[in-house]
Design goal:
Helix content: 10-25%
Structural class: mainly beta
Shape: globular
Radius of gyration: 17 Å
Strand content: over 45%
Length: about 130
């Protein structure tokens, strides 16, 4: 009986942790100009999207950006075990959109943009 209760609590805790999943705010790696962004992930029709909510310069000072509020990541499907795919990522610097996949491991999100079989991956860190 005691082990059944512990097992139920463990499953409930694991489910709560998974429920948070990708939703929240992640800090990007610096771009080519050394600027970083904060991307907020949210449910967008049963899939996940991420919009730019803040930008910072190389000194850490918040800066205005015409891209605030725009989706950087779109239409990602939760594939289980922290993996997301089937969506796209938009690079505001080049104004190009790439196929994307992501892997959430603790507070780190590996975000890949791919052209054909070639992918470039960045590590984003959960901020909230």
């Amino acid at each position: 009986m005691k082990s059944a209760i512990l097992a139920a609590l463990f499953v409930a805790g694991a489910t709560a942790a998974q429920a948070q999943g990708i939703e929240g705010v992640f800090q990007t790696q610096p771009n080519d100009q050394g600027q970083i962004g904060m991307v907020q992930f949210f449910d967008c029709g049963g899939k996940y999207c991420g919009k730019l909510v803040r930008s910072f310069d190389t000194s850490g000072k918040e800066i205005p950006s015409k891209n605030i509020g725009k989706n950087i990541v779109s239409n990602m499907t939760d594939q289980g075990n922290g993996k997301f795919g089937g969506g796209t990522i938009w690079d505001p610097g080049s104004d190009k959109t790439y196929k994307s996949k992501m892997h959430l491991n603790g507070k780190t999100l590996d975000v890949s943009g791919c052209v054909a079989i070639f992918c470039k991956t960045q590590k984003w860190t959960r901020a909230q």
